[in-house]
Automatic annotation (TrEMBL):
Residue ranges of coiled coil: none
InterPro entries, A to Z: GIY-YIG_endonuc (IPR000305), GIY-YIG_endonuc_sf (IPR035901), Slx1 (IPR027520), SLX1_C (IPR048749), SLX1_endonuclease (IPR050381), Znf_RING/FYVE/PHD (IPR013083)
Enzyme class: hydrolase
SUBUNIT field: Forms a heterodimer with a member of the SLX4 family.
Biological role: Catalytic subunit of a heterodimeric structure-specific endonuclease that resolves DNA secondary structures generated during DNA repair and recombination. Has endonuclease activity towards branched DNA substrates, introducing single-strand cuts in duplex DNA close to junctions with ss-DNA.
Record's protein name: Structure-specific endonuclease subunit SLX1 homolog
GIY-YIG domain segment(s): 11-96
SUPFAM superfamilies linked: GIY-YIG endonuclease
Pfam annotation, one family: GIY-YIG
CDD domains named in the record: GIY-YIG_SLX1
SMART domains: GIYc
Length: 268
């Protein structure tokens, strides 16, 4: 059964699939990008004048049946959206057979999605495939077979902005990092390391600080260009490379904001 309570997620970037419930247009679909799924479906059903897309305007009601999220930023999500919308012209999806005339568009788009999750660069990301409608998940769950590190969820989702005054995990992480230019050393190569070249473990109590390139070499197997996952050298936890990069981006952004605030205070 679909869980009634919504899961709240921060830093949300998602690509969704709509299904038209209007008897006149039933069977039509729409693929889009959003940072707020609940607001976006309301816009689609309200029409173009209220922020909805012209392709969905006056054809509702629409049902958001599935969403893929966990992208590190809007650019990554928008590229995924474009490829999913245009599999015939995407160079990464040349191996996917074209839609047959007898094939339903929903069936075809779910097959394309399943293939996208298995190829680069997307198969390295810590993505989540989330069914938002129980009946559709029951009827179409076999169409999608993502890599093992990508979970399939069955619940609603709500995006949430991080409040400036709220003490977050990222704040705790920053308090552990040396904001001043004091010497710190890589846990793998023991050489000096600077903040912009470092990465830390996603586990709150782990104090791993290493060069990004050192950890990448540690995680890479065979002829991999980029790692997918690995064991933290310090806490021995299994971590996804995409989660490490996502956390690193949050920290870098926070450090930039700190520097801006300091600069503003100096100006005052």
């Amino acid at each position: 059964m679909m869980e009634e309570e919504s899961e709240v997620i921060e830093h949300f970037f998602g690509v969704y699939l709509l299904y038209c419930m209007n008897p006149r247009y039933k069977g039509r679909t729409y693929i889009g990008y959003t940072v707020d799924p609940r607001r976006r479906i309301k816009q689609h059903n309200a029409g173009k004048k209220h922020g909805g897309a012209w392709k969905t305007s006056n054809r509702g009601p629409w049902n958001m049946i599935l969403i893929v999220h966990g992208f590190p930023n809007s650019t990554s999500a928008l590229r995924f959206e474009w490829a999913w919308q245009h599999p015939d012209v995407s160079r990464r999806l040349k191996h996917v057979p074209r839609k047959k005339s007898s094939q339903k568009i929903l069936d075809f788009q779910l097959i394309v999605l399943s293939e996208m999750l298995k190829i680069g660069p997307w198969y390295r990301l810590p993505l989540t495939i989330r069914w938002l409608d129980y009946q559709f998940s029951k009827n179409y769950y076999e169409y999608i077979s993502p890599p093992l590190h990508m979970p399939i969820c069955y619940s609603k989702v709500t995006s949430c902005k991080v409040k400036q005054t709220q003490k977050t995990n990222e704040d705790n992480i920053l308090s552990q990092l040396p904001i001043k230019k004091s010497l710190i050393f890589c846990s793998l190569c023991d050489s000096n390391i600077i903040e912009k070249d470092s990465v830390t473990c996603i586990k709150p109590k782990c104090f791993l600080i290493v060069h990004l390139i050192c950890l990448a070499k540690e995680f890479c197997k065979d002829d991999m260009i980029l790692p997918i996952e690995g064991i933290c050298p310090m806490c021995k936890s299994n971590v996804l490379w995409g989660d490490l990069i996502k956390k690193r981006m949050v920290i870098i952004k926070a450090l930039e904001e700190i520097n801006i605030n300091f600069s503003n205070n100096d100006a005052i």
